[in-house]
Amino acid sequence: LAPENFGPQVQPDYASFVQRSVQRLSELGRRRIAVIDQPNKGDRFVGPIQEAGLEIRHCWRLSYPTVPDCGALVPITELLFDGARTCRPDGLILADENHVEQVLLGLSMAGMRVGEDVDIVAQCSYPLAKPQAMPIHWLGFDARKMLRKAVDFLESPPETRDGPACVYLPAEFEDELAS
């Protein structure tokens, strides 16, 4: 069945994640952007990065599955950030929070300082399970808000359900969340 046949839905607005992550790195003065994305997501970051006047190279785009604790991202990240300062990325978009620890270890092994040599925007689901002490720019989707919207729909009388078939929840930075 096609998603539209499942009835009204609440979904993360991944396009807002892409746009806002690029915008944040640009605002921080980052010009050379690497992306570690999930498989089968295509090149969703390439256009927005180029449109912002930032650089992305083919070798800076990695597609990596969520595989817990396999450790392979440590040397991959170290290699990605190896080389002269002007020849390596100074911004990183990490589209899977499950890889943060491995990426941080790889950056450390490459001698990179997060918040100084490189800024990271990492996708997450709120509430954060493992807050990091590193200055990571967390950008994601609040599971509580998604659930609230779904419950509101289910509790509403059927005759009042004339809204859109799909409600997209925009990505929010951690410092934007209402307490």
* Global morphology: elongated
Mean pLDDT: 86
What is the N-to-C succession of helices and strands? EHEHEHEHEEHEE
Main beta-sheet strand count, sense and barrel state: 6 strands, mixed
Calculate the terminal CA-CA distance, rounded to whole Å. Answer: 38 Å
Percent range for β-strand residues: 15-25%
- Find the structural class using helix and strand composition: alpha/beta
Low-confidence stretches: none
Enumerate the strands of the largest sheet in spatial order, edge to edge or round the barrel: 3-2-4-5-6-8
The radius of gyration is 18 Å
* Number of helical stretches of at least 4 residues: 5
Annotation, overall tally of beta strands: 8
Please estimate the helix content: 25-40%
Q: Which features would summarize this protein structure in a list?
A:
179 residues, elongated, 5 helices, two-stranded parallel ribbon, alpha/beta
Notes on the protein architecture:
The protein is of the alpha/beta class and 179 residues long. Helices cover 28% and strands 20% of the residues. The chain has 5 helices and 8 strands, in the order βαβαβαβαββαββ. It has helices spanning 14-27, 46-51, 73-80, 100-109, 143-155, and strands spanning 9-12, 33-37, 61-63, 91-94, 119-126, 137-142, 166-169, 172-173. Strands 3-2-4-5-6-8 form a 6-stranded mixed β-sheet. Strand 2, helix 2 (46-51) and strand 3 form a beta-alpha-beta unit. Helix 3 crosses helix 4. 29% of the residues are buried.
